[in-house]
Amino acid sequence: MATTTTGDRVSGATDASAPKSLRETAYNELRKRIVNLQLTPGQRLIERDLAAELQVSRIPLREALHLLQTDGLVVIVPRRGAIVAPFGVDEVRDLFDVRESLEVLAARLAAQRADDSHLTALRDQLAAARAATARDDKPAIAAANAAFHAVIVDMSGNPLLQSMLQPLATRVQWLFHLTKERDPGQQCDEHAELYDAIAAGDADHAAEIAYRHVASGREPSLELAEHWSAPAIDPVEATRTRQRTPRRKERSGNEEA
């Protein structure tokens, strides 16, 4: 994923200044920590600490942070530092607005262009979600549900739509982790219904189910967002000192890197 050269980057970072493997190692690890909620919305990211933990220098770390900013997972304040993006109620609402349009189109196109390999991949993710639900493995449920939606986007066969949804894929997976208290059995049932419509090649029905599925998650997700959201965060203020952003009271006492 290419990064831009805007002025809101941390000073000194360049796209070609470090081996790609180091940048990707840092990117993948930080992305995983954010999506899995080891690093929480609004939390301060300390470059020196993260560079030591990940065993990389500051340059590939900064490049990784820029990639995460492109994904919408990180906010960078010039010459101050970075925080995990404050994924709150407004951001959740915006994400659902986009999903209710683009994911519906993806489902319609997937039904029109379904093939055996993609249908097998969808069945695999359904099975993975069912198995994870049976053992109450919430991170695995979130990963399988996100992968199910990603396969549908791939099935659409529309490169422009894929390029528009690809940057949202990580935020959708993040959302699934943040809303892991939603009924996983219901989500499996809705995905199974969507699979059946796509496998039958019924584009209109697939689009209808996709809309209902995404829309049904809006209000529960917004309600849950009220609980996980940190208080309103000013990124400039949050990066003013070296102190990590304090967590909400219910998370205090469980300090993480």
UniProtKB/TrEMBL annotation:
<feature type="domain" description="HTH gntR-type">
    <location>
        <begin position="20"/>
        <end position="87"/>
    </location>
</feature>
<dbReference type="InterPro" id="IPR036390">
    <property type="entry name" value="WH_DNA-bd_sf"/>
</dbReference>
<dbReference type="GO" id="GO:0003700">
    <property type="term" value="F:DNA-binding transcription factor activity"/>
</dbReference>
<feature type="region of interest" description="Disordered">
    <location>
        <begin position="227"/>
        <end position="257"/>
    </location>
</feature>
<feature type="compositionally biased region" description="Basic residues">
    <location>
        <begin position="241"/>
        <end position="250"/>
    </location>
</feature>
<dbReference type="InterPro" id="IPR008920">
    <property type="entry name" value="TF_FadR/GntR_C"/>
</dbReference>
<dbReference type="InterPro" id="IPR036388">
    <property type="entry name" value="WH-like_DNA-bd_sf"/>
</dbReference>
<dbReference type="Pfam" id="PF07729">
    <property type="entry name" value="FCD"/>
</dbReference>
<protein>
    <submittedName>
        <fullName>Transcriptional regulator, GntR family</fullName>
    </submittedName>
</protein>
<dbReference type="InterPro" id="IPR000524">
    <property type="entry name" value="Tscrpt_reg_HTH_GntR"/>
</dbReference>
<keyword id="KW-0804">Transcription</keyword>
<dbReference type="Pfam" id="PF00392">
    <property type="entry name" value="GntR"/>
</dbReference>
<dbReference type="InterPro" id="IPR011711">
    <property type="entry name" value="GntR_C"/>
</dbReference>
<keyword id="KW-0238">DNA-binding</keyword>
<dbReference type="GO" id="GO:0003677">
    <property type="term" value="F:DNA binding"/>
</dbReference>
<keyword id="KW-0805">Transcription regulation</keyword>
